[in-house]
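Hey L., structure's done. Input below.
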Amino acid sequence: MKEHPITGGIAAELSGIDLKQPISDDLAEALRDSLARNLVLVIRDQFLDVDQHRRLAEVFGPPAINPYAPGKGDHPEMTSVIKEASERTGVFGGGWHSDLTFLEKPPGGSVLCAIQIPPYGGDTLYASQQAAWDALPEPLKQLLDGRDAIHVGKPYGVKWAPPVEEQSMKGSTKRNDPEADKERFHPAVLTHPVTGRKGLYINETYTMRLDGLSEADSAPILRQIFQHSTLPEFCCRLRWSPGMITIWDNYSTQHYAINDYHGHRREMRRTTFEGDRPIREWA
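Output:
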């Protein structure tokens, strides 16, 4: 396996491996180590079937069922992320976020496979929240370190859900769930269990306020953090190709699906893998 950095701060492309074949213990360890250091991995021309996709996800943790976008049939852990050519509204994952941070145990990461890609557009942006933390002004570091942030599942709840005409993947996602409106407390800053690097754990889609502050008092602080955490210096932009796979660390990154391919169909298949309840210092 060879590793080729994509930017100076996040993501690497891997070559010299065939993930359709059984994954040895040595390769599994190399993949986990590479993900811990790079936070996003890209492997091209794999064309995995469902069983091979699941086997790859199991390298990083037990596959998890997305309670708000479960897969169909025999593979509820496999979410098909589809935008049809006829759809003109929102796209699933459009907006900076880390996945499902309003859950008690958000997923540790995801494995996303390209099934059908448009002739142009449909790229995915990733942002290192470790790089964002490193560059955060010291007063904000002091404000956040040791403090919780409160997350709410706004797109899936009742109070903050977007209008029906703006919702993506209608009929394939669970909406209007009052459980998603409940507040969940997670540390605003996490320490990576392997590298020891700190990273922000705050995102515009789900973070409502900071512990000890009202929503109104939190708003200007969070707005500054949201703008900082996705600066171009912390990001990479991935252009998909057929059969390509991306793996990411959900606790250390944010991502954004770009909705710029109207009139063309895009289909991805995603499996998340389980994580632990976020704590400030993982052993």
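The CA atoms of residues 51 and 189 lie 35 Å apart. DSSP finds five helices and 16 strands in the chain.

-- N.
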